[in-house]
Protein 1
Amino acid sequence: MSESRRAPRNAKDAPQTQAAPPVKAVLQRVKEAYVTVEGRTVGEIGKGLLVLVAIGAGDTVRDIDWMVEKIVNVRIFETPEGKLDKSVLDVRGALLLVSQFTLYGDCKRGRRPSFSDAMDADAAAEMFKLFTAHAAEKVKKVETGVFRASMDVHLVNDGPVTLILDSRA
């Protein structure tokens, strides 16, 4: 699938309002995960988080920073007592980040999803690179899929434990 093809927006200067769509992320705690493109593995991790990331039309660097901080610090891993009280940083886990604009699929009307709240593909590509760079400043191993590619995402859920985050919640 290709990203939205609307006119480009300057992502860094976009005004931040309550009505603007948030950065969205789906976190899945995994024992292992990898992404392939045309049969070739492009990103692979062991224990950690598979994170599907969608950048919204009004998102700013501030939203990216908030989301990265939340992801690396959310206590989604278990202590020896079975309590969810450790972050990916605490367990020295890895991140596999996959751009997933379809998280903005709005199915309220009709049968075909609208992706109008997703950021333009070119601007989103830059924001996703920034997201990845900020995550790599915090977590030792950060892998990604290929932006705008048709990807096969493979994972072994751990739990399963899955959370949905957005930067405006």
Note: The domain at 11-166 is CATH 3.50.80.10 (D-tyrosyl-trna(Tyr) Deacylase; Chain: A;).
Protein 2
Amino acid sequence: MAILPISVLGQPILRQETVPVEVVTDELRALADDMIETMRAAEGVGLAAPQVGRTERLAVVEVDGQLFTLFNPEIVARQAKIKWEEGCLSIPDVYGWIERSEYVKVRAMGRDGEPVEVEGTGLLAVCLQHEIDHLHGKLFIDHLSFLKRRAALAVWEEERGKYPDGLRVLAGRSEERGEGANSEDVK
């Protein structure tokens, strides 16, 4: 397994629609494993393939000890609303309060290509929605009001100089999270 560089805001791949996975191969399982290692090294709770420069419709999510590898995930049911402070591994040190569905049911293919359903509330629901957005070229800042988005982008302008190649290269688990982050931030 390997820790992959994470594409940051400004990389075109973050705004592209992903390609559905027809068959789950050993190569895709290895990619998922690398994504899990990368997500953990970055202390995130989710990661989507575009964030590591790939176009496959694949996301990994780990919340409360539950790990999910999801190919072609789609939300098939949602209920209620919740506000949650989100961040993103592709936009380090930028956070915003986003309104999402409090409950979602997601259908996908699992690690071995089998059909799976994941139901989640709270953080798991928010994370699933956040990662599925990535698979469709949408970022959490797109859910912010004009003024809040503008403020978030101003913070990002100060941070983006740390990533001159448009990539966030992690140094293993020792990388520290920025000030203002907390354990419930969606990444």
Note: DSSP finds three helices and seven strands in the chain.
Protein 3
Amino acid sequence: MKATAPATPNRTEPFPESAIRNRIKEFWNEKTDEEADNPFATERKNTLHDVLPVIDSLEIVKFMLRIEEIIDIEIPPKVIQRGGYDSCDEMTRHLIPQLRELYAKQDH
């Protein structure tokens, strides 16, 4: 009679939501602190700054590399909201569900 190895369940690591939320918050604070140092930021009335998001999508694309370090998945740019985000909360609410879905599709 052959001995069989016990079946091991395909376990996955839980989605690291708190680490991602913290990284988003750090990034947001870093970028908005830079904006506070911008001498043109105070002159936002009736300028291009009125219509631009606080952090544009190009900055977010670069930032995704920091998230990839956490979840070890290449993140496609399509998960980023067109144009960018006007608040940290908006960015978090938009990205977390999409990143969770990407993470769930991967074997960890």
Note: DSSP finds three helices and two strands in the chain.
